[in-house]
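Give me a protein, keeping tokens residue-aligned:
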Amino acid sequence: MISRYTTKKMREIWGEENTFNLWLEIEIAACIAWNKIGIIPDSDIEKIKKAKFDISKYNKWFEETKHDLISFTRAISENLGGESRWIHHGLTSNDVKDTSLSLQIIQSLDVISASLDELKNALKKRAIELKYTPCVGRSHGIHAEPMSFGLKLALWWDETDRHLKRIKDVRNFASVGMISGPVGTHASVPPEIEEIVCKELGLKPAPVTNQVIQRDRHADVMQRLALIASSLDKFATEIRSLQRTEIGEIQEPFGKPGFVSTGSSSMPHKRNPELSERISGISRVIRSNSIVALENVPLWNERDISHSSAERITIPDSFLATDYILQTFKNIISEMTVFPEKMEENLNKGGGIVFSEKVMLSLVEKGVDRKEAYEMVQSAAMKSIDKGENFKVLIQNNNLVKEKLSKNEIDSLFDHDYYLKFIDDIYGRLGF
């Protein structure tokens, strides 16, 4: 289902056509390497370079053999003459399949990198736009102190930037191929062949293998995708929270211009955060797949096949899903509606209890004992919350406050610009 909504490029990478094309490329590259060391004659290699793959012939052989690589090599051989004897010479199935998988992973990581870049740009644009837009910060779901809404997006930008660095880092671990024979001894295919093939494909030879490229490399990739998913889940959860009716500070895109979307089959008023919820749900699948990747690391002896069936599902699905939620979240950020007036209204709930710390600190700076200042401000805040009284009025009428602070000083304590005074410094650290 996800593949219907993800980018065309990612679908193509994990499509059957690309897989078979990569297998053919590896088989031909191996034959060229054998030619370079004098095993395959020039007359044969010129014909092998023109080898073609026919899916109908593959399907015919697969019905008989139930083995993908055997069916593949026989399908190629049907389009060749006597030179077909060199196809798959000295190789084992995973020399081709694992090297191909590395290429698909690298291609996919490059798509993910591009998507992360796009998301970073979208976040940066909105973070700058909303840099001085005050909103209430929350901890434990409870009002804390004023902050900038742009700062929330800048924090997400920074986290996304770390993911981009991680993807570029893990690309190096994933960029390995193997052409080492049945159990990695190179007995049937010398290291020189592997070096030639990997260089041709833009890979590094894995320094040592058995019958497979070791799955810790793949697990590492999957953990990076799971981390991206967790961050997007976190971002989406915040959007879902801020879109709640009681808060109403933002609205994710809802339908398209000229198109009336629907949020409920029974309640016409509903505008649900369905896109953000979709991201949270898909993120759970990606994280779960990363556990499967860890389970695929331990294999019997030089290799068993327990990993194969699982990763044929989890690796493509995780890349397709990660690509999809990155694109979806980029669109949410770019198109979401922000309501500064609602942010201002929420800031002022309770008559300014979010300024309680500033009141307390000002009293301390005027010589009041911290414990006394804290308890006095806390008492006023609790009265404001429990009895619905205006916090600022309670503070203004307090004898200790009137003794220590002038009216202008009290008014200055309830100014949210105070909490934005270092926003430029923080943005400067990010290079905005």
User: Anything to note?
Assistant: The longest strand covers residues 142-148. The chain has a mean pLDDT of 93. Residues 9-86 form a domain with the Fumarase C; Chain B, domain 1 fold (CATH 1.10.275.10). The chain has three domains: 9-86, 93-251+266-339, 353-413.
